Amino acid sequence: MNKVLFITGPTASGKTSLAIKIAKKFNGEIISADSRAIYRGIDIASAKPSLEERDGVIHWGFDIVNVGERFTAYDYQQYAYKKIEDILSRSKLPIVIGGTGLYIDSLLYNYQFSSEPNYELRDSLENKSLEYLVEYCNKNNINMPENKKNKRYIIRAIEKQGYKNNGRKDNDFTSIAVGITTDRSVLKDRIVKRNREFLKLGIIEETICLSNKFGWDNESMTANAYPLIRKYLDNEINLEKLIELMSIRDWQLAKRQITFMKRNKKIHWLQLEEAEAFIEKELS
């Protein structure tokens, strides 16, 4: 087969378990499309599946760079295409899974990126209002820094995602793209339960380790739950408030992910159970 399966959807929608199940049935290997999972050490906060959860399925796209190192959407695209080519060459099924919409789109539509900094764009962003930059991040699924009132920080977050022009060309493979849709109340419950599990797994200890190593001002420490855990460590909030705020932040992320990915007409949106049947039919 010359097919590549894409599974996307909001955080906590059940993408990982579905991808592993499909990979075991169809001799697949998984390529993560998560802009947080690329970092070494960001494990629990990025919901990387454990070795036990991976159940023998090979995973790519984890632990590519150190915290603080530059890694753009262009870098991800080039990395993922090489993995897709390698997996197909071994007559196996590449399964791209994740919630970073720009990563998914860059592969589905084969965006033509510039690998060099776009100074013209940077200058144009400098002239934009803070409100415009915040809206740009929301529309393009870009994680903003904790200090949302600092234009320089927001521009750096945008730059980190790489720059896309209008050029596209066809891929050499056939894409099957599925998005997992979930009832909002169910998704909210899953998010809360997952955050409670993150605490049991040691997300606070992970945060302390990373902050000691890289400092709180590192851009990677301004995303995920880390700023909220810092408030907990500083005794500004208690444990229950931490879970509440982490869940609110994840829900806001899920809404941004849904808004961004719903624009992609190549994605078939299905409930988790329906998605499995649809994928098996497309691959059979």
UniProtKB/TrEMBL annotation:
Keywords: ATP-binding, Magnesium, Nucleotide-binding, Transferase, tRNA processing. Residues 34-37 are annotated as: Interaction with substrate tRNA. It comes from the Bacteria. InterPro entries: Dimethylallyltransferase, IPT, P-loop_NTPase. Its EC number is 2.5.1.75. One of its GO terms (molecular function) is tRNA dimethylallyltransferase activity. ATP binds at residues 9-16. Its cofactor is Mg(2+). It catalyses: adenosine(37) in tRNA + dimethylallyl diphosphate = N(6)-dimethylallyladenosine(37) in tRNA + diphosphate. Substrate binds at residues 11-16. The record marks 100, 122 as: Interaction with substrate tRNA. It holds the Pfam family IPPT. Catalyzes the transfer of a dimethylallyl group onto the adenine at position 37 in tRNAs that read codons beginning with uridine, leading to the formation of N6-(dimethylallyl)adenosine (i(6)A). PANTHER family: TRNA DIMETHYLALLYLTRANSFERASE. Belongs to the IPP transferase family. Monomer. HAMAP family: IPP_trans (MF_00185). This is tRNA dimethylallyltransferase. It comes from Candidatus Nanogingivalis gingivitcus.
